[in-house]
Amino acid sequence: MKKIYEVSETTIGWLGQGKEEGEDGMKFLKVLFRNRKRLQSEKDRDEKRLGDELSNPDDWLALEKLLLRPWWTRVWTLQEYIVAHKFVFYCGMESIDREKLNVATVSMHLCMKIKENLISGRAFEATWIRRRLLNWYRKRHPMHLIGLMAYVGDYRATDPRDRIYSVLGLAEDRNLADPPRYQDQVTKVYAYLVKAFIERYDSLDIICLADRYNRNARRPPHQPSMPSWVPDWRIVTVPWVVPAMVCQSAGQHIGNFRPLPLHGAPDSYTAGRIVGSANAVISEDLRILTCRGIMVDNVDGIGGLKVVHRDREGNEDDWDEIHDSIASTSSVNSPSGDNSSLEIKTDPQHLAKLMEQVGQCILLNRKDRYLGDKSPTGYLFNEFQALCHYSLKTPGLVYPQFLDWFQRNKSLCIQGYSLAELSERFGEQEESSKINLNDLSKQTSFVSRFKDTTEWMQRRLMTTKDGKIGMVPGRTQKEDQIWVLFGCSIPLVLRKCKAERSYEVVGECYLHGYMNGEIITELQDGKVKSQEVNLL
């Protein structure tokens, strides 16, 4: 199919009949195209304006309906859109070519910077994702199969095996699943993809995506069910440019589709990555993955989180999932416990360090949402401290989503102190009054990075029995175990099963101080031992 589109003179994308404001939406795309230069020239001004042509809510509604049509999330249309020499959209009697659409998409982005909620995020993503992928393809940057599949998380196919096969023509490592095997059941196809990835890259990183593409994320679950270590690509998720930590910018085998100017030499998580380290064996029936790793600690307390699920099927309204806070009960974390082993001090320096570590966990120790640059000591600490302080004293000033998070996490005890107590001890700093507590204008503000981690990646603040701090998946439970598996860049939360040495994969975990091979050094120094585990 790829060759057909490459040699065709023109490829047509039929968006359907012009009814339901379809043609009006197409006409408005042309208006957006015409306004691109003006919007771009005004984007750095203090006062920005939409202008008369772009201020009619009916035009935006017509565009939203056009971009929510099924064509945009049909996975087979992605390849034809990207590889075709010339691509033209038709809706009723109206048409627009791909190049003008991409310019109009940038105008949409600039308009949304001026006024939020002009159009739903789901509608905007329809063209934005395709524009980003087209730019990568044209610049001949490597597009890895797993990263590509993870990015287009809400794309659909009648045959679930086509979640893989439909994008093979775009992937640099297409031989992971080429040639297609339609004679195999979907469970076998998905499991074989994991097997092929491990064998090619000597890496377990792919299993980290079994958290976001989780077999239990749908009610009722898809049948037949997958093992917990196999990403279930049948699950429909909200697209996000870095859907998991394993999609870090430094990732050589998965990666992400960050803006092209950001290419460079990013920092990397390397928790369990050592040369020739994976040594994983998958059973003949493709149900058990056996590997080695190191159990680091048990989960103790877990902060609360409100997750808003956006309906990707269009059948119902958004709905909230509430993860209640789970109290810390270990002697190290409990205020009434014996904290002497950690030499808990009450001096401001120690408490500031503890508070800073909590902030670093929320940032996943990265300055940017693409997880490319390690955050230096103290990075955005004043912003985090101010947000916590005002959440206690004058909550009306604080960004509502952070305030909700703080209320659900303030009682979580870490090394003998609750988050509320840590916030109280600092009081108001001189710089606090200068900090914008609702700043979403910059992707690098603390509030923006907080949203990346808690909303888009759905991570919860956590402390282990020994007082370590981290961020874990929403469905993590007390007593779950945190492991570093050989050949896996990111620590994992595992849940013990009844069978000996058997575990279920819960998902990837940020564990502060254990993201760069520290536990491997302890192993080499004889301080810890590795064990064989069976993932079911």
Automatic annotation (TrEMBL):
Alphabetized InterPro entries for the sequence: HET, HetReg/Transcr_Mod
All copies of domain Heterokaryon incompatibility, residue ranges: 1-80
Source domain of life: Eukaryota
Coiled-coil regions listed: none
PANTHER family noted in UniProt: ANKYRIN REPEAT DOMAIN-CONTAINING PROTEIN 39 HOMOLOG-RELATED, HETEROKARYON INCOMPATIBILITY DOMAIN-CONTAINING PROTEIN
Protein name, UniProt field: Heterokaryon incompatibility domain-containing protein
Native source organism of the sequence: Oidiodendron maius (strain Zn)
